[in-house]
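Could you please consider the sequence and fold appended to this message?
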Amino acid sequence: MSLSSYMGSKVLLPAPFSPKANNFVFSSLFPVSLKGHRSWRSSFPNGIDLQSQASGNRKRLFQVRATTVKQDEEKLVVEKSFDPKAFPEEGTSGVSPPSSDLEKWIIKMEQSTNIFLTDSVINILDSLYHDRPYPRFYVLETIARVPYFAFMSVLHMYESFGWWRKADYLKVHFAESWNEMHHLLIMEELGGNSFWLDRLLATSVAFIYYWVTVFMYALSPRMAYHFSECVESHAFETYEKFTKAEKEKLEKLPAPQVAVKYYTEDLYLFDEFQTSRPPNSRRPKIENLYDVFINIRDDEAEHCKTMKACQTHGNLHSPHTYWSNASEDDPGCSVPTVDCEGIVDCIKKAVADPPKPQV
């Protein structure tokens, strides 16, 4: 696909909403190359790079060079996350810089495993759904919401043992699952689940994926969040290609009612999962089916950013909590914070410093 024209622009973006996010930067949102593409799975244009620039002792800002793409009189600016296939260098990713060669090797192994698993699933989807986009999207959305269920399950278990208590993580992960559920409802309304074999494949993969993620998240939250980022990045790329290839057809079709309701009515949870932007800063336009898929694509980009932020322990903050500073306005309602990273760390802290009963 060729670009008719392009225009470079520079934008200064702050780090995600966290005082610990000084070392956080997005670099690429397209982690996995789909193999065996046909029809709408053609490669879409490159042309976006990121440059980071420190600003003394102030909060680090990141200078982003973006390309404004014109195609059929449409301008599209895409913020790119990092490429999960490229191991992050120090200071250029959301992952904390490795403190030792051993930790660096562990991170490489974690990411290599995630990439292998993601590529395996993508190859299956490519072979089964090369000319059936809606069933493919149905399967993809069934799979995409599973990690958030797994994250919340493990965190609730930690809470039950008194090992962990950080409300922002539960709020954001629930909002993410709520968003993915509505993507799934949209695909069902479009007929993506009409064939029983597609439903069987989707639920079977989701069941296996859930337990894999539970084990992975308990062992290494960083690895689980990176795995989820790989999946969300593939979803972004898939919708990006589809909307470019089918734009004219989609613009003539009406938007499903479930999409209109989700994107235009109660938007609290819609804002909650977008941790890289303040609440009320994104209000989707829903006039036809093309708008629906554009917003689903943009949702996947926001999921990528949130998963990226989560890879630095303690880096996730609810957008509403961050901007309203509710805990400062009413300290009496604040929840005591207990923290640990992975089940091994939780057990060590529980043995070394058992929780004290509150009077």
Summary: Residues 101-128 form the longest helix (28 residues).
